[in-house]
Every structure is written in C-alpha cells, then in structure tokens.
C-alpha cells in the first residue's frame, strides 16, 4: 500500500482542506448577518442562533463519526459526511425563514464532522507525537488562512449577489474537497471489522478515553482556550457592524487582520518545538492569553474601547491560541493508539460543546455592549489555565506514585 506521507505537501493540503470546512462555514457568512436578518424578517441576535446550532451540530456529529471511523475506516464516513454537507449547504441557500436556516445549519455541521474527525485521526495514524504537533500547526495555518480570505470574500459575495450565494459556494467547495480526498487517500485506510457498534460497547470505549487523565486534561485545556475564539466569532458582528459601525467589507478586512495572528503563531510554534516541549509551550501561551483577556475586559469595562485597541488585543488573544491549539491537540491524542478515531471525535466534540456554550452565552448575555463577548473570552482563558495547572500537578503525582 503506498504511503500517503510520501507526498507531504499534498497530504497536508487535503487534510487542511478537510479541517477548514468548519471555519469556512462560520467565517464566510458572518458579514452576511445583516442581509440575512433583513431578508428573513428577523434581527442579528436571532441570526446568531444559526451559528450556535452549527456548533451544537459539530459537537454531536463528531461523537457519531468516531465509532464509524474505527469500524469502516477513515474514508467512507468522510465521503458520506461531505455529501451531507453539500446537500445541507444547498438547503441553507434556499431557506425562507430563520428557523429553516437554523435547522439546516445543524445538518450542515453534521456533514462537516466527517472531514474534521477523519483528518485528525489520519494525522494520529501517520505521525509521532512531536511530528503531530508540527502537522497540527501546519493544519492550523491552513485553517487560519480561511478567516483571512473567507469574511472578505463573503462580504463581497453578499454585496454583489446576496447571502444565499455564500452557501452555494460552500456546497461547491465541499465537492472539490471530496474529489481531492478521494484522489490522494484512495490507497490508504485503517479499517477494524471487529470494532463493535453496539451502544454499550461505544459507551465503554468513550468512557475509557475520557477517563484517561492525560487525554482529558489537554482536551479540556484546548477546548476552553478555543472557546474564547467562538465567543469572539459570535460577538464580533455586533461589535464591528453595530458598535463600531463598519460595513460588511470593512468588517471582513478587520476580521482578516485578526486571523493573521493565528497564521503567524502557527509558524512560530513550529520553530518553538525545536527547543521547547509542547507542554511548556501550552503553559506559557495560556498565561499570555489570560493576561491579554484581562486587559481586553478592563479596556471595555472602563469604557476605553476603540477600534484599534480592541482589535489589537483580540489579535493578541488569537495569537496565543495559535500556540495552544496544535500542542494541546497533539498531547491529548498522544496516548491514543488503537482508538485514534474515537479520541479525535471526543476531543473535537468537547471543543465544539464548550464553543457552543461560549457562543450561546454571548447571545444570552447580550446587553448592547462588548462586555458579554470579552467577559466570556476572559473566563474561558482562566478556566483553561486552571485546568492545565491542576491537571498537570495530578498527572505528576500519579506518575511519581
């Protein structure tokens, strides 16, 4: 069987494309919130529920795909997921009420999960721990490029053709990614015909993973740290479109500038791994994220908010996340070997569940200021640092005994 890693560039490109379906589905339609609200006779806060339903779909869907990836291999569930995604994207484009859009966004997320879970499982299959962190950094760079391009592109598409075309383009992209995955990965798979799909067996398998201290500490650390990003995604349309009065295209440009922090951090992370451990990088980056979040909250709370200062602090917050996410992901999967698919699914599900909670809280707490967004971002960073600090101490004690 040919080794997919022989063509590393194409492998990273395809895996990155599979992973970026989620961010594209989020970022491309953010500038269209105002147009969707006007067209469907609702308000932006109701439109933001379609973002929350997408996060919920990602959280649930990944748990479904985990066992399927173990039993049937990485490819078939991935192909089915991408097909569901394409059909749901078309349904989103033809939605006539906000309720329809919210429901179809949920199914769109279920489809996106196939590529998200499969890509992480394939990385665990093919690479060792330190190499995994480097590959996750490269994947995150591909993911981070989408927020640079997607909102700007979404703003132009919405202005020129209307918001429905955004979902039509997403459907077309998923079919291209499906084709690329088929061509590169057709010689590779990891099938376990003896893996049981009985509910009690699946529950036992997930329980064995979630009770692995090493897995749960780093998975939850990454989940809460990333949840600050979802709080920002949920609150940024209100912040930039309403409070700062930017138009859709200006919002896309600012969004792209902030996302550039992720791209820069992922490249610096690969260099940092040459002389620092993933554990150390995560800890230092979390401290930086918490300090930045505290400054951002104080900035908004005391009324010093302005476009440049707020954007700079959000940029720094996401810059820190660019170090945290790839290393925490690699560390959480490090002890998982024969259950890489399920572990990848559980890790992603935890991230999306906490992300959906953070996103929903921003909407529920909305008071026509930026305080709900920055407050949730600060709390998420603080919880992540606490989990890592306490969890690391307990792992050290357990190892010494």
From TrEMBL:
A Pfam family: MFS_1
GO CC annotation terms, alphabetical: plasma membrane
Biological processes per GO annotation: xenobiotic detoxification by transmembrane export across the plasma membrane
Predominant place of localization: membrane
Membrane-spanning segments: 9-26, 46-65, 77-96, 102-123, 135-157, 163-185, 215-233, 253-269, 281-298, 304-325, 345-365, 371-390
Membrane topology listed for this record: Multi-pass membrane protein
GO molecular function: xenobiotic transmembrane transporter activity
Superkingdom, taxonomy of origin: Bacteria
Domain Major facilitator superfamily (MFS) profile: 11-393
PANTHER family: MAJOR FACILITATOR SUPERFAMILY, POLYAMINE TRANSPORTER 2-RELATED
NCBIfam families hit by this protein: efflux_Bcr_CflA
Protein name: DHA1 family bicyclomycin/chloramphenicol resistance-like MFS transporter
């Amino acid at each position: 069987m040919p080794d997919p890693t022989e063509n590393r560039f194409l492998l990273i490109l395809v895996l990155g494309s599979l992973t970026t379906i989620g961010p594209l589905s989020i970022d491309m339609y953010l500038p269209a919130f105002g147009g969707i609200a006007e067209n469907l006779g609702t308000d932006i806060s109701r439109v933001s529920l379609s973002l929350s339903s997408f996060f919920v779909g990602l959280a649930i869907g990944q748990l479904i795909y985990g066992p399927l990836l173990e039993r049937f291999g990485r490819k078939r569930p991935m192909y089915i997921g991408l097909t569901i995604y394409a059909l749901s994207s078309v349904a989103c484009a033809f939605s006539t009420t906000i309720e329809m859009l919210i429901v179809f966004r949920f199914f769109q997320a279920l489809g996106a999960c196939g590529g998200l879970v499969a890509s992480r499982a394939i990385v665990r299959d093919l690479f060792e721990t330190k190499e995994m962190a480097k590959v996750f950094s490269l994947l995150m760079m591909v993911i981070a490029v989408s927020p640079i391009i997607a909102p700007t592109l979404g703003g132009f598409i919405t202005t020129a053709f209307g918001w429905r075309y955004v979902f039509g383009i997403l459907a077309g992209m998923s079919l291209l990614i499906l084709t690329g995955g088929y061509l590169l990965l057709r010689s590779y798979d990891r099938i376990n015909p003896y893996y049981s799909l009985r509910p009690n067996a699946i529950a036992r398998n997930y329980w064995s993973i979630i009770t692995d201290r090493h897995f749960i500490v780093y998975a939850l650390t990454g989940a809460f740290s990333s949840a600050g990003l979802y709080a920002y995604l949920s609150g940024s349309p209100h912040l930039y479109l309403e409070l700062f009065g930017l138009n859709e295209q200006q919002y896309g440009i600012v969004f792209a500038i902030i996302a550039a922090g992720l791209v820069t951090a992922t490249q610096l992370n690969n260099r940092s791994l040459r002389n620092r451990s993933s554990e150390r990088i995560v800890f230092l980056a979390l401290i930086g994220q918490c300090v930045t979040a505290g400054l951002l909250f104080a900035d908004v709370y005391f009324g010093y908010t302005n476009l440049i200062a707020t954007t700079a602090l959000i940029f720094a917050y996401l810059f820190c996340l660019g170090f945290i996410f790839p290393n925490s992901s690699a560390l959480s999967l490090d002890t998982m070997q024969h259950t890489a698919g399920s572990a990848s699914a559980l890790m992603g599900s935890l991230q999306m569940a906490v992300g959906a909670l953070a996103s929903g809280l921003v909407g529920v707490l909305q008071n026509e200021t930026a305080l709900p967004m920055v407050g949730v971002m600060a709390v998420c960073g603080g919880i992540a640092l606490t989990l890592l600090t306490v969890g690391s101490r307990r792992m050290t004690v357990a190892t010494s005994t």
